[in-house]
Amino acid sequence: MHITSLASLAWKHTQGAIAEExxxxxxxxxxxxxxxxxxxxxxxxxxxRYCAYWRLPHYETEMTNxxxxxxxxxxxxxxxxxxxxxxxxxxxxxxxxxxxxxxxxANGIMAGVTTNGSALTLRNVEKIVAAxxxxxxxxxxxxxxxxxxxLRGWPGLxxxxxxxxGYLRAERERQGVHFPITIKxxxxxxxxxxxxxxxxxxxxxxxxxxxxxxxxxxxPETYDELWIEEPDLPELEQVxxxxxxxxxxxxxxxxxxxxxxxxxxxxxGNKASPDIMPCRIGLRNYVIKTNGDVESCVHGFPVLGNVKxxxxxxxxxxxxxxxxxxxxxxxxxxxxxTCMSQTSLGDxxxxxxxxxxxxxxxxxx
Length: 365
Description:
The chain is an alpha/beta fold. Helices cover 44% and strands 10% of the residues. 42% of the residues are buried.
C-alpha cells in the first residue's frame, strides 16, 4: 500500500463524509458508496464453530470472472478509484480468483482479500504476491494451535497459516511488492483472554496489524458455548482496557478505540446509544454477494439490486436503495463487525497510515 493510494482513498472518504452530512441534515441524497466488499463464494474448507457457511445445504451460483470484471468496472465508472475487499467462504477455493486479483491490479482497482490462511502454500503465495493485492487479511483467533484450531475446526491450520505468513513476507521482499498483512480474530468466550498475546504474536511473525471483531449469533455454538455471558464481561472489560493501553502505546491494533470499548455492550445485547447514532452504513457500504445481489447492510435490509443486470449507479440511486438508506439511518442496532463498523474520518486516516507504515517488509520483532 503506497501513500498515493492512501491519499486518493482519504479524499474519497472526505467527499463521502460531506455527502453524508448533507443527507442527514438536508435530506439531499448526493451520497456515493465508499466502502466496497465482495463475497466471491460461499464454499469453505474450514469448519468454524461460529460460522454457518460450511453448514449450508446448497451454495449460491458463483459469478464468473467476466461478471466480476463488469461489476467492478461499473463501480469505477461511477465513483472513480476505489478499493474492495474480497472474502468468502474461502476465496482461494474459487477457480480463477488469483487471476481476478491480478486483473484488478492491472485495471487500477485496489483489491484485498480475507482468507483463512489454508491456501497460503509456497506455490500459491508466489502467484498471490505477483497479483499485487492491496492487502491480505488472515483470520487468526489465538496465538496457539490449541485454541485457534478448535475454533476453526481444522487441526494443523494454525501451523499452516503461520508458515504462510512467512512465505508471504519472504515473497513480498523477493518480488519487491508491498502490501499490509492484517490478522483478524473473531472475539469469543474461548479466545478473548488471549487477545493481548495475539497482538504480540502478530508482531513476532511480522504481520502489519490486528483488526478485531466480536462474534455474532448465528450458529448453535454461538448460543451454547461461544457467547461472552454476563459473569465474564468484567474480565472482558479488563482485557479491552489492556488492548486500548497497548494501542495508545503503539501496538499495531487497527480496531478503533470506540469499537473496542463497545464490545462489552455488544455481548450484553445493548442498543446503540444516541451519541454514536445515526447509523451511516446505508450511506457508504456496497456489498456484492456471490450471486451478484448488492446489499448495504447484512442485518436483514432488502437487496438494493444486482450487478449482472444493473450498473452501480442504477443500483445505488434506485428507489429500493433510497428506502434502505432511510431505514438504516433510523436503525439503533449496535453493529461492531469490523469490516463494516462506523469509524470516523480521523480513525480511517489513522488506520490507513498504520497500514502504509507496515505495508513493506520489516523484520519480525
